[in-house]
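Bench notes, afternoon.
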Amino acid sequence: MRIISRQKAIYTFLSLGVCLAGLAAAVGSGWTILNWREGVKVFLGIIFFGVIAAGLVVYTIFLVREIRRNEQHDSFINAVTHELKTPIASIRLYLQTLQRLDVAEAQRRQFYELMLVDTERLLHTVEQVLKAGEAAQKKSPAQRSPVEFGALVRECMELARTRHHLQAGDLEYRPSLSLQNSDGARVVGDPEELRTAVSNLLDNAVKYSPDGVHISVELDAPDEKRLVLRVRDRGVGIPEHELKRIFKRFYRVTQRSLSQVKGTGLGLFIVRSIARKHGGRVFAESEGAGKGTTVTLELPRKELPRKETVA
């Protein structure tokens, strides 16, 4: 209901702004026609009414943007609240059960494992929020060092297999021939931030593959200056008009089939921020809803500057 009311508010203010701009244009045109013989007054009047109309248009645009931003903030707060409350409630329930009942050892161990999973989920949510705050500062990477990107990607894939309980064939690594037996997949940057970016891409691909995980991770070096990582999934896909919006903070794809998919809307925003910090970029491609998505991360292949030796 809240979303519908805000959509009505957007349409209302947009219509009001258009009507006021049209009214200003009509008044200005009428005044010009009535006073067309007085050149200076006509000229000043056109400028005056043009400024008013432009101001109304700008005001309407910013008002609509602010309404949408508030809507995204509310959605983010609701999502984070759910992501925090659910594991806490689950852990509390298991602890109360262990406190009140005499639980068998096997079931006790199962409860411990489930609580650890909920703890990891809770920690992941907190880390996402903190990293999103750091990413918004747009600072350059604090620690810049050579990173073997291929090894980092494989490490993130193993972590994703463990976290999401995937089979070996669900997540496939496909390096290009030029990178299979060489160290050409090196970049310079912050290893932790790069690991965060790759992990977010993998987690996002798994999250939006509700009917079965089939993810291909491709690493390629198309030239001497670029290193390209492509994460392909066969999931729900993305409508064309939302391909650029998914990298905005708090933004989530608005499909009814994804209403049960939980998240904070920060993962791809963090990826984009990290890519920009490292001089790269990230973009998404999809043929439409239900046809999967490919997210491409491009990073420059740089070398650390050599220190000058003093004789």
